Amino acid sequence: MLxxxxxxxxxQPDSCGACRRQRQGRAWHARDGAGALCPQxxxxxxxxxxxxxxxxxxxVAAPHAALRGQAAQLRNLHATLDLLRHLLHRxxxxxxxxxxxxxxxxxxxx
Length: 110
Prior knowledge:
By secondary structure, this protein is an all-alpha fold. Helices cover 72% and strands 0% of the residues.
């Protein structure tokens, strides 16, 4: 809970994992210095980033799949709507043709 706002609770630094990781990163950076990165530190940083990427992908995968399914459903709905619109137009044309093709009964004067 990093963000604050009218509808979001205030971050509790002792219980917030993101704050704890940020403090650990700052401590690591201060301890090793900017120019003295050892291979183990780089490996840990890469592993940390890889784990964070996997976590984010896991969190995003389900909503993304749901949105993809809903988008496909919306495309199918639009195609059905278009088909029904064309069908309705053709039915109106057929009704007009039937009216014109009906024999007219004219009283013969005589």
